[in-house]
Sequence to fold (812 residues):
Amino acid sequence: MIEDESRLPAPHLCLSFAAAQQIYTAVSKIAATSHDERMVRDAVQLYNALIDSEEEDFLENDVFAVSLMNFIGRSITSITLGEDIEADIVELLFGIAAKIRLQPEILPVWFTTASADANGRLANQKVDFAGVTQKEDFPLCYQLIDKVHHEGRIGEFARMGLLYIFESASKSLPLEKWIVNSDLPTLMATGLGALYSQLSRLLSILHPPEGMPLILQLSDYSEMRANPDATSLFSDDFQSHLVTFLSYLTFWQDVLEHCRSTDVRHTLIEYFQVLFLQQLLYPYIVQSSDADGGSSVAVLTYLRRILDALDHPELVQMILQYLLALPDYSAATPIDPTSPAALRRRQSLMLLNGPKQEEDSMSPSLFNLVDLILQSADSRNPQTVIAALKLTTVLLGKHHGYALGSLVKVTNIHHKEPHRTVGALNMELDTYLNIAIDVAGEGGVDEAYECHLKDKLSILESHPCSLKALALPSASLQSVGYFDAESGPREVGPHHLIPEDPLFKSLVDLLLRFLTNDVETNLALTETIISLGSCSELRLEGWLSVDPSDYRYPDDGVDYDAFSNDSLRDMYKASRRPVWDSAAAPQLLTCLQQLQEQISALRADIQDWDEHVASRKDAFRFHEEVHDAMRSPTPSMPPRPSTEAPAGSWTPQIPKAPSGTQTPRGRKEGLDRRETPAPSPAPSRLGNAPVGGSPSRGMSPLPAPQAGKRQTTLMTDIDANLSVFKKSEFLKRRIRFNRPAGSDAVEVMLSKYLPPPKDDAEDAAAEAEKDDVREASLLHIITNVVILQEFVLELAALLQVRASLFEEVRHV
Fold:
């Protein structure tokens, strides 16, 4: 009757009667004691109708507020409700929170401070670090916080409603004091910890056979074995837990972004640090091990997803400053809370955490995230190496300033004028491009290089350190760098990578084993190196380009004194192509030349080597073409939105339905991203870009698909070729790489036999421990050769784009 009447012009007699007679009190008692789900549903609809009418000022009525909260509290505890009814109840609470945000004057109806005195102190209550539970003061808030961990509509409405309440704290001093005194910060921090604890302690990041990317199928990837006790990253159950945890983590971030109360924000951050970071996350780092086959993989993967999801500067600074054991610049001048309540809470936390830290045998000053990453990068477990490299990429790319001086050892330099010449750049580009063509042929190189140039331009422009380098001279900008509590990040200036940097040494060691590394390790490795070289302030001399002091110019017979114009003479000198001794070659170039020699040895021993490599490149290229064709919508069919929500994403807006098409935060996931069953992409660092760019179909030895039916035929052709690749006895032959201890020379040997039986695997591993002995199938090595060519092209593109974008070479 009320809903029907609301569509008619005033007067609304039924609505007036409902308000005057307070019929909602009877409805509350009847529905709450009925133990009938249908009755509860009808009561929710009635309350919604009264609130939506926006007449009679129901939300300003104390009796209405008490009856509604009593109804919800008793209904939820006395009967098991269906998910749809529970979502309707939380949506109702969300609507009230939204009204409070827009109409702060109605807050006293829903929030009372009867238990607090005029100064915000709780009467006859001792406020310890956990805070005081006062559900009767603000039952709406506690109902919402009980639901923030849920998935779907329930969690979205609860998180958004609680977000509005925290936003309202900046407009109400009593609410601000109440939040600081209450156990709300404790509940939020422990709730996050509880969700993290649900994630598996042992994790496997190996791809399941179903839907495995083509690049992994054409390798020895299937020979890798996971710990049977480890949970798969790709299982639906694990992904569900991960999504829930990351959603709650991003909710934390949004609360801090929307809350304008300094005391509330600092209280939340301090509880996050003590109850989640120090007492839960850091012990996981200390206790992780590479020996149990999964705990190091798990904590490295979780840290990567956490740091990838977070953008809030205070949260990021607090996490990385602690885990990387960076100097605490805020210790000298701490920001004191403005209220006595917040100061007492901080003192309680310090008492809770201080003595424990002193007694602890482990702290970040003794073992921190840098130690875990470095020891994991040198692990013999490929999964551990992959997880460490992916975390390193996130740190270098998204949180670059914190990685400098901790994860990456650098030395600052004071000169900013370029010393490298354009002639040296051209010589270096020719050297790298010649290596790329030599290792895997010339087919598709032009298209691939053009694709990499565009990709590197985008990466360099979006790097946090590029803002200042690309700004106009008159602009006053500061690049992201070391954190300073007083003035924000310290500016990152020009710097060199020191030759003894442990991380870079680990990367070089992995690069030297490129041909026998598992494919996913190589994809992660190349991405990390490219991320390292994307900082505009990092000089490339010594590791990627030749130091100008090592240039040597052969006598060209030119009389430079004959030039009448000094500028013309200087331009000519700068354009000369220098040579350099092998000892002066940058480290990466030396590694690539060693790999080039190994491939040359393979080419000399294996018949039709170049044809095998070209065939593999064609397989990847055409598989990607079909993949693109199947993803592209036909003109008569609009594209369908994805039905799978990215892990841990939620948008702070009024939710109408479960969100499934939101844009994921942070970087796109690579091979560890769950994909719908579809043809797998060709090899690239992220596994989702063609290995040769987008070459024209005219280059293909197979006919281009003409219609949907032909696409199916082409897919069948490629699957047939894939089957031939995998069943070829010749491609199963093992290649052994032996580097005796203390020697840089690598012996390449082709075995005439198939892989040894599984029972002999342990004996082979023991033998490999003595010297650096590695084996892989020919199938596997050819795939890695194709990846290597793409990586060399990426390095050349990085050199060229940096020189142009940042003016790194001189022309005079």
In short: The chain has 31 helices and eleven strands.
